[in-house]
Amino acid sequence: xxxxxxxxxxxxxxxxxxxxxxxxxxxxxxxxxxxxxxxxxxxxxxxxxxxxxxxxxxxxxxxxxxxxxxxxxxxxxxxxxxxxxxxxxxxxxxxxxxxxxxxxxxxxxxxxxxxxxxxxxxxxxxxxxxxxxxxxxxxxxxxxxxxxxxxxxxxxxxxxxxxxxxxxxxxxxxxxxxxxxxxxxxxxxxxxxxxxxxxxxxxxxxxxxxxxxxxxxxxxxxxxxxxxxxxx
Length: 232
Ligand SMILES: *Cc1c(COP(=O)(O)O)cnc(C)c1O
What we know:
By secondary structure, the chain is of the alpha/beta class. It has helices spanning 3-21, 40-48, 59-65, 87-93, 103-113, 139-151, 170-188, 209-214, 224-227; strands spanning 30-34, 53-56, 75-78, 96-100, 120-125, 155-161, 200-202, 219-222.
């Protein structure tokens, strides 16, 4: 067994234990591997060990790595800040963009998605911790942006994404996750066109995935927990 396969197994066991502890079905929590700065060969090892979903947060890396991964069927999500001049390139490789945080970006993605065979799945990124360094719309503005995204013809709003509070206080981390669940509940219940299926909650990373799963995460994004500490 490769080191990647062994740590992937350990993370799967953590997510399953957390789901069961929360009275949830482990199959309702998908594992997305955050593969920033991970070489294609190690991503291939993760695929060989059964991984099917990866996330890239830089356009350059996405474009550089995906051609080496085309032999294995997988799903790729874009999870980082997306500059408008990179939209077309990212769209070529990504199945979903989780970091939509403005109406302007949403409209640009919609125009670029016109030529795709199927609609582009998107998540809205919400800054639930209020930390200034974090991207995302405020929880208060999420409903309005969801209505815009829902109205766009070539985008399919699947849910919401957040990066948890950067805090050693578990209560603060938990609040940043329950906050995202509340945003999703309000949007899905709003009756706005195109928002009724926005149930995915992408939240939780290597250090706090148990807290996110307890708060309802349907997708956790794990990097170091599987690939080890990244070189800086
Ligand atoms: C890197 C990254 C992760 C994973 O973080 P780890 O602490 O390495 O598990 C999750 N989400 C995003 C957006 C990231 O950039």
